[in-house]
Specification:
Chain lengths: 575, 261
């Protein structure tokens, strides 16, 4: 269907190529995962496939791409979109119209469809995606999940045969992300769509994907084949190419080595993993052991100290309203020194607002916050900022200087440290955030992962007591996420406390001392991770959270073990 | 008849013609009549609530008062005429002619604002662009570009607020002198521009990937046309302005603009 031959692409003549001699064939009905570390040219390849590149950026393309047997360069402008549709990552910037219906109609008008046909197709599409009630709604009033659904609807209305998804779920909460993935899988089955997926989190896609293509940092295609072999190949690479392997595969490999998983090939989906384990009870014990190891490691990192003493920060009956909408209602929360708290909840649950209030970034409307025994409002701004750090969702927002070095030195200069002290501390932080090589670079010239680390390093500069972070791991690859987590572990190890917003329950489960679950402006749960998952009333379900992989596996093994013992009972009774 | 049903291009044309006509008059009565007329039309035929109308008009009121004030105090005194002095303080003199001129100016501002608001509050931006493309042969490339940009305005505003807070936190409550604060503004511009450019690029990609080429060869689901009703509206607006001239003339107030400013 699509044939790529010796594709080399550079953004300008004489620049290093972003894609390097790529050869790839895509068959009708394929679900292809396009994998690679950040900056490996995955998105570039996708945009070359649908003909936007090289024209859109005046790039230089060598080699050939054929679509349905015709070279892409023979297609007229705007013709390729009849064959290939794309859904992009950012829900805010892929629309150009005001209302839902206008946006769907826009694509059909571009195709030159007569108005009567547009009416029919638009109506059908709205129905198919459950968007009919929102037909006249302004797009900006939709949630992130709905916007991505609309983006997909707009593309599907044009009846393409190939769908390219460029990290469509990166900014969605896990529940909306899962819904989106299910919708795509349904379309793949019903409409026989060919799908090309670029994504960091692979777990949800594994039961549909039949092929994987792997790009390395230089933009060369290093592997192409079925997903299982691709992961095996990846595991052989020392740097693992920054790709986040599916949880089921990682654990399955480990258990294969230990002889617990009996399949001849490592599993790639949760279902395969569960059915391949011979002794559910043993697997369950192993999972518990792994968890105990995490907790022990956590404790070790703090030298055995437990978060204790009077609360560092205590919030009482916080309420906050914005534009007539009650965002927070009667929230009570305490944070202790040396503690790591994860703030969870679906999009729009009030997480960012709560974090903003705790950091005194938003004005307090109702309630009371005490920090280190003193009311937040009575703190003098500069004294408070020395003790509470806040890392924004977008790292670029908080850069105030022209070089990485200066960025970290900035607050130290404000605190009038001596040049030697500054030099020493900056070198230390650069080292620990692996930014030493780019100390002279402009902050805006860094990669996304580096920017994120720099924004945290700048906040860590003067050993703050409390660090509040708004989704620091969003859009980071596996490698960067791991680095971030060990950085934060060091912070808590030195007695600082961390309060972090996250959608990633695997991270929360592994690192949090406490998970605070927000739902519709109220605290639905506040306690250690294990308690959250094992609570009878399942507060995480109401808040549309997905439990971590470890927990959902454990549940399945328990069920299997119960069924097994029941069978044995039956057998015994039968004898 | 609702103002929302009038063809947006014709509506825009009517407003422009009315404003041009008004520019010839320089007396308080004509613009006052137009101001009252367009307010009544907006509330009666445009479905705009009186509260919203007054709220939207209020910033212009401030500008108008500013005009009245400065024209009153600093306006050129008509040469030859023995100016009737109402009040004086040192070198400042308030003359009757100055007051009347100030009020004319203020009302002029208000009437222009009311006419423009009449259009803005009763027209959907996307319909206006559709109409420009269909009736005025406006290029789709520009029209859809404007619509995409229009979506960004609130986003940019939000982003600026976040950047300001972020910088406040980074500076740890230390505020420099005014020179430093001017430099700060430059600092806000970099992330704001970077993200605006990135967003614009992404939107352009998304539009192109949906087959948008900017050519005029496209169909329109929503066909807007110009009917007798629209011409009637245009005629009514022009007639209203002319009647205002007439009434003002009958009251002996009408004076044509002749370089008073």
């Amino acid at each position: 269907m699509i044939g790529v031959r010796d594709l080399t692409f550079r953004f300008a003549e004489g620049e290093a190529p972003v894609l390097h001699g790529v050869n790839l064939d895509i068959q009708p009905g394929d679900v292809l995962l396009l994998l690679g570390p950040s900056g490996s040219g995955k998105s570039t390849l996708a945009l070359c496939l649908n003909g936007l590149y090289p024209e859109a950026v005046d790039g230089v393309l060598a080699g050939s791409i054929t679509l349905s047997g015709r070279s892409l360069s023979e297609y007229r402008l705007g013709e390729v979109c009849r064959e290939i549709g794309v859904v992009f990552q950012d829900p805010e910037s892929q629309f150009c119209m005001i209302s839902v219906e206008e946006e769907i109609v826009f694509g059909l008008e571009n195709l030159g469809m007569p108005p009567e046909a547009i009416e029919k197709v638009a109506g059908e599409t709205l129905d198919l995606f459950g968007l009919t009630p929102y037909r006249r709604a302004p797009i900006h009033s939709l949630s992130g999940g709905m916007k991505q659904k609309l983006a997909l609807a707009c593309v599907i209305a044009m009846k393409p045969r190939i769908l390219i998804l460029d990290e469509p779920t990166a900014s969605l909460d896990p529940h909306s992300a899962r819904e989106f993935v299910r919708l795509v899988k349904r379309l793949h089955h019903e409409e026989k769509l060919t799908v090309i997926i670029i994504e960091h989190r692979l777990d949800e896609w594994m039961d549909a994907a039949n092929r994987c293509a792997l790009l390395d940092r230089s933009g060369s295609l290093v592997f192409e084949g079925d997903p299982r072999s691709a992961f095996a190949f990846l595991q052989e690479r020392p740097d693992a190419e920054g790709v986040c392997l599916p949880e089921a595969y990682k654990l399955g490999r480990e258990w294969m080595a230990r002889g617990i998983y009996r399949g001849s090939l490592p599993p790639i989906t949760e279902g395969e993993l569960v059915s391949g384990v011979g002794h559910p009870a043993m697997a369950e014990a192993l999972l518990d052991q792994q968890e105990a190891d995490w907790r022990a490691e956590h404790k070790r990192s703090r030298g055995g100290m437990k978060p204790a003493g009077p609360p560092l920060l205590a919030a009482e009956r916080l309420a906050y309203a914005r534009g007539g909408v009650q965002v927070l209602e009667s929230v009570d929360l305490c944070l202790y020194s040396g503690e790591w708290v994860m703030l969870a909840g679906r999009n729009g649950a009030g997480k960012t607002t709560l974090a903003g209030l705790l950091a005194n970034v938003l004005p307090l409307q109702k309630g009371r916050i005490c920090f280190a025994g003193k009311e937040l409002e009575s703190w003098n701004e500069s004294a408070l900022r020395r003790r509470i750090g806040y890392v924004f969702q977008n790292p670029e927002h908080q850069f105030v200087t022209d070089s990485v070095y200066e960025e970290i030195a900035f607050s130290l200069r404000l605190l009038q440290w001596t040049p030697e002290q500054i030099d020493h501390r900056v070198a230390e932080l650069l080292e620990c955030c692996r930014l030493t090589g780019v100390a002279k670079a402009h902050p805006f010239a860094l990669s996304f992962g580096q920017k994120r680390r720099l924004s945290i390093a700048a906040m860590l500069a003067n050993h703050q007591d409390l660090l509040i972070l708004d989704e620091p791991t969003a859009g980071q690859d596996a490698h960067s996420t791991e680095m971030l987590m060990s950085l934060l572990q060091e912070v808590t190890g030195q007695g600082g406390s961390v309060c972090m917003i996250t959608h990633d329950m695997n991270l929360a489960d592994r690192y949090a001392d406490r998970i605070v679950l927000l739902d519709e402006g109220r605290i639905a749960f506040d306690g250690p991770p294990n308690e959250l998952w094992s609570r009878q009333d399942e507060p995480w379900k109401a808040a549309q959270l997905l439990p971590p992989f470890r927990w959902s596996l454990r549940k399945q093994f328990q069920a299997a073990a119960d069924a097994g013992s029941r069978r044995e009972c039956h057998a015994a009774a039968g004898d | 008849m609702r103002l929302q049903e009038i063809n947006p291009s014709v509506k825009a044309g009517a407003v422009v013609i009315a404003i041009i006509l008004l520019a010839f008059a320089f007396d308080p009565v004509t613009p006052l009549l137009v101001l009252l007329g367009s307010s009544a039309a907006a509330c009666r035929f445009g479905g705009v609530s009186v509260k919203k109308w007054l709220l939207c008009l209020s910033p212009f009121l401030l500008i108008a008062i500013g005009y009245v004030w400065s024209a009153m105090l600093f306006g050129r005194v008509p040469s030859g005429a023995h100016a009737q002095i109402l009040w004086s303080f040192g070198p400042l003199q308030v003359t009757a002619a100055g007051v009347s001129r100030g009020i004319s100016l203020g009302l002029r501002v208000m009437s222009f604002a009311a006419l423009s608001l009449l259009f803005v509050l009763t027209t959907s931006p996307s319909h206006f662009m559709f109409s420009l493309m269909q009736q005025c042969r406006f290029s789709p490339k520009i029209a859809y570009g404007i619509l995409a940009g229009y979506r960004f305005l609130p986003l940019l505003k939000e982003e600026l607020a976040v950047i300001r807070t972020a910088h406040r936190i980074r500076r740890m409550g230390v505020t420099g002198g005014w020179a430093d604060q001017v430099k700060q503004l430059g600092r806000y511009a970099i992330p704001l521009l970077a993200s605006a450019i990135r967003k614009a690029e992404r939107t352009a990609m998304a539009m192109e990937s949906k087959g948008f080429t900017g050519s005029r060869q496209r169909t329109f689901y929503l066909r807007l046309s110009v009917t007798a009703k629209d011409w009637l509206f245009l005629a009514a607006v022009v007639a209203f302005v002319l009647v205002s001239f007439y009434i003002s003339g009958r009251l002996g107030q009408l004076s044509w603009y002749s370089g008073e400013l």
